[in-house]
Structure prediction request, 482 residues.
Amino acid sequence: MTVKDFLSLLPHTVLLVWASLLLLVDLFIPKNKKAITAMLAGSGLLITFILVLRQWGGQSLAYHQMVVVDNFAVFLNGLFALTGIVSILIAYDYLNRMSIQKGEYYVLLLFSVSGMMLMASAADLIMVFLALELLSIPLYILSALAIPRSESAEAALKYFILGAFAAGFVLYGTALIFGATQNTALVEIVAKINAGGLDTGLLIVGAGLLLVGFSFKVAAVPFHMWTPDVYQGAPSPVTGFMSIGAKAAGFAALIRVFTLALPSFSAVIAPLFAVMAALTMIVGNVAAVSQSNIKRMLAYSSIAHAGYILMALVPYANPAAAANATASALMYLVVYGLTSLGAWAVISAVEKVDGGDLGVHDYSGLGKRHPWLAAAMTVFMLSFTGVPPLIGFWGKFFLFRTAIEGGYVLLAIIGLLTSLISAWYYLRVIVMMYFRDGEVEASKAITINVAAVGLAVLVLLIGLLPTGLFNLALQALANGMG
Prediction:
């Protein structure tokens, strides 16, 4: 290992070491003082975030081309670190109220974030698989945090079985690509493809298996069936963290592999991505309309938003449209992350110890009894719908514009129509909060309220200046490795 290798993975190493030490330190922290563990975990993520930012503008391959440091990785790693920090703010009060406060939650969250960061930095298919397991295994355990509740146990078991199944696809796809190219490093795979003389059939099948495995992780149709049950059964802060962290990591792998390693198969992959994007948008939004449980509703909403992001992964023949498409995907991951985390913060604040108040009708009267939380939830629901000038509108605008520029007008029309369908179930929550009477109660803890209101303010402010975020996403692709 060289100094260059060490510095390339310094943020990841610091976070893993911090998590390992925190696991030991937590043994000596009393059960009624787990706020110390939460603060230490947040501090570790903050230090990691600072170290990640210092890598902006650099470009290097390390560990024998297994890891890459570029703006693409830095952009996503920063998103993962911030997601972890906000998830801690949301979780602390929730875990106390549900009597499931455990120091292991914060340690597992750090390990999962480190796996997500490694996924964004992976430049080798073996590293992609290891990162996938590192981010997934802690999430399986976190989903079961509310045991002995049967819903939590069921969520963890389903997530584990289907997650392991998806990992098998990734591993087998990697084996086939290695069989075709005699290499697993993405840079070497590109060189072998450009040189020609490969078994194209084997390569395409391997790429297809990778696509299946990653599609499980991002909950794209038809690999989405685990999502509603897992989102409903897992503790709400875990679901919120999972909804953006795991999804963004899956898209990081999709973008890295299918834009860098396999660009020559655009003609083969484009129709497949287009069909998956259309089906995911349609199924997610149509299924969400009939949901009365708000966690299941947001689960199907999460599926629909995966469809919007998949629009950007359709390989476009126009190089300018292709660059804008990838930048639009990165931007939308931030857009969805801010909005989703905020919505789950409100849900975590309202949820009762017995698991009640999870029906949409249970939010009746929230506008009168807890106006700040209701106002924040209104912002999140409108942003999900795509109402201007909120950030959700601009996220969809850039995606739809890219699809039209790339010649996929029908895909943009499907995205627009499904957004109109989504207005039905998003606006229903707002109607319940302000136009129905109820006795809903919510947590008054400062951490969870600050998280919800703060994210709502960000959704509003960034929506007023959306080009800044889009330009930042373009810069994330500027140094050539994204």
Q: What stands out?
A: The first helix runs from residue 3 to 8. The radius of gyration is 21 Å.
